[in-house]
Amino acid sequence: MGFPRRNSSKITTLLTVHMMLLLSACNRTKGVVKLPGNVSVPAVIAFGDSIMDTGNNNDIKTLVKCNFPPYGKDFQGGIPTGRFCNGKVPSDLLVEELGVKKFLPAYRDPNLKPSDLLSGVCFASGASGYDPLTPKIASVIPMSDQLDMFREYIGKVKGIVGEERAKFIISNSLYVVVAGSDDIANTYFVAHARQLQYDIPAYTDLMLNSASNFVKELYKVGARRIAVLSAPPIGCVPSQRTLAGGIVRECAEKYNDAAKLFNSKLSKELDSLNRNSPNSRIVYIDVYNPLLDIILNYQNYGYKVVDRGCCGTGNLEVAVLCNPLDATCPNPQEYVFWDSYHPTEGVYRILITQLIAEGERRRVRVKMYEMLRERVVRFIVLVLLGSKVAMRAEGVGQYPALFAFGDSILDTGNNNLLATVTKSNFPPYGRDFNGGRPTGRFGNGRVLSDIIELVLYEAGALGIKDILPAYLDPSLSNEDLVTGVCFASAGSGLDDATARAQGGVLTMSAQLENFRAYIGRLKSVVGEAGANSIISNALFLISAGNNDVAFTFNTLKIAMPFPLYTNQLIGWNNAFLQGLYQLGARKVWALSTLPLGCLPAGRTTAGGPLRVCAEAANGEARIFNAQLASSLQSLQSTLPGSSLRFIDVFTPFLNIIQNPVASGFVNAANGCCGTGTYEVAETCNMLVPSCPNPASYVFWDAAHPSQAAYERVLFCDCEKMVSVVALVFLGTMFALVAATNGGQYPALFAFGDSILDTGNNNHLATLTKSNFPPYGRDFIGGKPTGRFCDGKVPSDLIAGDLGIKGTLPAYLDPNLRNEDLSTGVSFASGGTGNDDLTAQTQGALSLSTQMKNFQECIGRLRAFMGEERAKYIISNSLYLLSSGNNDIALTYSSPLRSTIPFPLYASQLVGWASDFLKQLYDAGARKVWVLSTLPLGCLPGGRTVAGGPLRLCSDTVNREAQLFNDQLASAVNSLQGTLSGSAFQFIDIYAALLNIIQNPFSSGFLNVANGCCGTGLVEIGETCKLALGSCPNPAAYVFWDAGHPTQRAYEVIVSSILPK
């Protein structure tokens, strides 16, 4: 059983997200997808179960058939045809969408004509499955027999059109495979036929092996374009609710869990088959999440009934149980399901349109979607069909060449020719590379530069190769020069001492000299004008800093504070970039470091007996990365025509390391090579064993990710990387779509202080209010709402940027509707903190009171939405927490807590914050962003109180804030590792705001020391109300009052923390 896919919260690849445009008609016109003249889909071939079956079971001895009323009541002529639906099934809609024909006939149809064969047929059989036992139980056609019929079909096609034309049809047709639901639901759970032999993990392995073999056999007989659909949430179809959903007929979660486990395995296996099957397009289609979304939000899609089918009672009727003696609902369009197992045609027809619109509705206006849609459809068809030439005609090709500089993350073999021990041109390195040969890449297969090269190559954005050769490769051809090479050298860094310590590797300056020599060679091949064009339009990758931080600073014990060393590294990086720019480079992606403390070697060296991630090393990496990102923005403004992008690989890698199973990995602490604790380069050699399956390891050796991890980072749900790739493919507008929420967060809930408060204090007996002018002067309608700002606050902006809603209402707003609850509210209260004493002195809601309000909100949600939908909202929503600002700035600076040493008070604050986060988790929250404090010593009020006569930033207060933030970040990471299924992230807004304060003009601000309200020295809350006016242009001010940024400043901060 299978259904079309939406742009779900898990973006596996751009291809799989949007390939489903092919799998359902988006309207009723013939041939909606217009293929270019050089792209052909001569036929569509379908295999599997009842989702695709168009009548093959009609003439076999089985009870699993449907060639009688009421089936087919909405089909052409109202006749039953053997389709398990009221009308068309996905195989029909697919051929209709591609303009191949109106519907897909069954291969066993006695009325089949030769012309039908040439444009495709269906071999699927209702109730079949990957497990050979499944079709035996139901007496239907096994997958193996479907393959035999396909072989017979090939013979018939050859007899009609000859060998050559038949070969073309077979190799260029589209193959769709849908199976697995009947294995899980019927064979395993209902019939219990395999439960004594296998537990669920073992049974899904059996299914996977059969599915893999089926695809391999398809490939052997000539199929090249194969789409395999995942299993859906089978526990939510009406029959399984009846059999295993209890008295209230809820979704049977154990069925769904089995489906999810199978899907995760199937996805990885198909990726592997695609890589290892030349000239193939084998695509995994995730259909689990989109159907679940339809089921949980059925009313939003216009349906009235989701837990029963239209036929009979709708609880169990399917196949022969749904017959002419059963009444049917008067309007199937009101039902998600036709019978107790299969959706209505209406679901098939609207699902993909609604799913795509859902992904873009959260960020882009409907009009923009309409403009993009045709281009997206054509693009995905082209990706699926491999037409790179046509893609270039679509304007996809942005980069004529790719160049890489830096270290082993990008090195593709330059060290092979150097007198250094830092090499990897021997086994077991390269075991999964083309031909299983070592090439000098520090991995089991491709490295990140290769994978980006491959992405651009597949997109038609690069020329004639799909791997990036090393510049020092003696076999380098002129053709390679034209489309780019790699200059990177493993072991190198921004500090020349790093390269020297590694024994003869190429410094960054040496790499730049090699690039200079390359330009001379390129000019001799394509001429000066051609060379200049290639260089100025090429994409440049840089990965440097890993070895400086991990090795040079920590191993060689550089005798200086790390922030000072970081400043030196950034200076050297800027000099390198300026050198590149002078040689013609304009488009540069600078990669962050990896989370160095979590590399296997880092764990071994500094992670203690338990080999945990070394937080000190990760903290150093974060400092370097933050300064690198800031410096790129600043440098870009001084280099006309340049495009310098910071690419954060630290965060997606850390996410994989902290959630390996969710990302499809088994081991995140060890490398695959040897013991996996220290082996790298010459210590990872042919004398040490390596793990049998590197794809299940995050790391290949003790310092380098596996190819699977690199691929996961590039194509995972880490939106920053996906947005960059999308930008290459479809330009800025579509990149925005790919980078946004995509349906990940149904709601947003905010807790904490005035940074997120949207009006709760209006309804409290407190002086800490802002529901009066001039607050709100730039808000919608120019009205004060209780937000401590001239306009929107971060909770509003994040909700808006993620496409959830334009503003986030306050929970205590008496005008709050139940509908508002379903998309989120703010519980935050201006003046509160982690310390209950802070809230008490400010008359604000403590975090514990906010938690009580949240619990009350959950109860209201359950009453309004139902238990199941409320649970979904709570577990999938995004939660924001901002607390600590008032504890440090107010409570600690008063006699109330000042007698406590600040480090101890900071620990107490972090302890209270951790307790609150645990309570959130216990209440069902899973996705939480914990905001740092602001740079409190630089707030106008902080400057006035503690900045001396010149009102400078107070370093003392800022240090306290930094100490608290560091402890908070560590606590959040620790909770993430201990709370199963959580996705807790520390969000550093301290650095973002400090960067604005230190570089106001680059962000468009004129005043950083004063607030816009009154004198800007002390006015806040009531004193801002009494002030004599406010500045004419708040957008030129970083701060609105003495304690809060302006909406404009918040916008800059939010844009820096949200996916680009």
Give me a quick take on this structure.
It holds the Pfam family Lipase_GDSL. With 1060 residues, the chain is α/β, with parallel strands linked by helices.
Describe the structure.
With 1060 residues, the chain is an alpha/beta fold. It is built from 37 helices and 18 strands.
Strand content range: 5-15%
Number of strands: 18
Name the overall outline: globular
Radius of gyration: 30 Å
Uncertain spans:
1-39, 352-397, 716-743
Rounded mean pLDDT is: 85
Q: Widest sheet: strand order? A: 1-2-3-4
CATH topology of the largest domain: Rossmann fold
Q: From the coordinates shown, what is the CATH architecture of the largest domain?
A: 3-Layer(aba) Sandwich
Report the span from N to C terminus.
Answer: 37 Å
Number of domains: 3
Structural class: alpha/beta
Largest sheet: 4 strands, parallel
Topology:
Blueprint: H1 14-18, E1 44-48, H2 90-98, H3 114-118, H4 133-138, H5 143-161, H6 163-172, E2 174-178, H7 181-190, H8 200-220, E3 225-229, H9 238-244, H10 253-276, E4 281-285, H11 288-296, E5 305-309, E6 335-337, H12 345-361, H13 366-385, H14 388-393, E7 402-406, H15 448-458, H16 478-483, H17 496-501, H18 508-537, E8 539-543, H19 546-555, H20 562-582, E9 587-591, H21 600-606, H22 615-636, E10 643-647, H23 650-658, E11 667-671, E12 697-699, H24 707-715, H25 719-739, E13 748-752, H26 794-801, H27 818-821, H28 836-842, H29 847-865, H30 867-876, E14 878-882, H31 885-891, H32 902-922, E15 927-931, H33 940-946, H34 955-978, E16 983-987, H35 989-998, E17 1007-1011, H36 1022-1025, E18 1037-1039, H37 1047-1057
